[in-house]
Amino acid sequence: MNSLSIINPAEKATSLSNMSNLSQTQEQDVVADQLVNEKSEPQPNHQPPPSTVYHLRTLWLTTRNDLKSIVIPETAFGIFSALSGPVMTTNQAPQLLTILSRLPLVILWNWVNVLIFDLANQRLTGSVIEDSINKPWRPLPSGRITVVQARRLLLAVLPIGFLITCYLGGMEETVAMMVLTWMYNDLGGADESYLVRNLINAFGFMCYSSGATLVACGHGDFTLTPEAYQWLAMVGGIVLTTLQMQDMSDQEGDQARGRGTIPLVLGDWAARWTIAVPVTLWSIACPLFWDLHPYAFIAPIILGGVVGLRILLFRSVDADKVTWKFWNVWISCLYLLPLIKYHTG
């Protein structure tokens, strides 16, 4: 006869009591970790501790998706803006080699801030659900780390990131982005509505752009010009009206977590027009803002046209991922305009 295990009522009561004593954060960690465990492969016992390479790859996988959309474009913004001299900063005579020597510092500043945001975002239960569909290679849905480990890593990275920006510059922008990260993730701003989501992202991109420029200029050496702040506002406008491009390929995961993105609220076809039209208009408005020669309109209009046509004509998930890459090239091209203004007058 098979023996049946009987749970002692006292033990059961103790277990329930322990669960009721968990904080809200701990309860969320338990739920999210259950989701991670369901997705991950069973691991053999007595594994050796992960190597340094393993941990570095985990960090890379955490930020991998935002390298092309934030780290690279915003690093370009900072370097281009610093090289633009009096067009964007109070530096009247920018030195090419001096500014390029700060390139690793600008990359580090952007990457640390991206890491803070990504850890805060990916540890949430809804994000684990979404990523298990859209990005199963990320550390949490793939089982490389647990939600508890991600939260503890965030606790360590936050003060480290703050100290790094104290040294490199852009501290005010980093603090502002920490507030925006809190609003976006823990306060549910990303799930409130697509307008709130894009608005928070717009302010975030403005902070990245401003901070990267200050780091590229040299901590405390120069400040931004009034015209630079107007340009930052335009960058915010671009993000506010076109960032839904990144949502087009993520519709399945967003629907699973109940996030109301523009393609899910307005419909796929209408959402595509909300991208194509603003991209076309910004491709003309940005060179006009800098009062550039007609030849400076060519690259933005061509790249904007590619984004606009692709988003309307090619509507698969894979095609949308490629179009998203073109969007990042397009906005990086717009970031070059102040430098063109500096050299053409």
Describe the structure.
The chain has helices spanning 9-20, 24-39, 52-83, 96-100, 103-122, 125-134, 147-168, 171-184, 189-192, 194-217, 226-242, 251-257, 262-266, 268-289, 298-313, 317-335, 337-344. The protein is mainly alpha-helical and 345 residues long. The termini are far apart. Mean pLDDT is 89; it is low at 1-22 and 39-44.
Q: What sequence of helices (H) and strands (E) makes up the elements?
A: HHHHHHHHHHHHHHHHH
Q: Quick one: overall form?
A: globular
Structural class: mainly alpha
Number of helices: 17
Mind describing the biggest β-sheet?
none
Overall radius of gyration: 23 Å
Q: Bin the strand percentage.
A: under 5%
Spans of at least 5 consecutive residues whose pLDDT stays below 50 are: 1-22, 39-44
What separation lies between the terminal Cα atoms?
A: 92 Å
The percent of residues in helical segments reads over 70%
Give the strand tally. Answer: 0
In short:
The chain contains 17 helices and no strands. The chain is mainly α and 345 residues long.
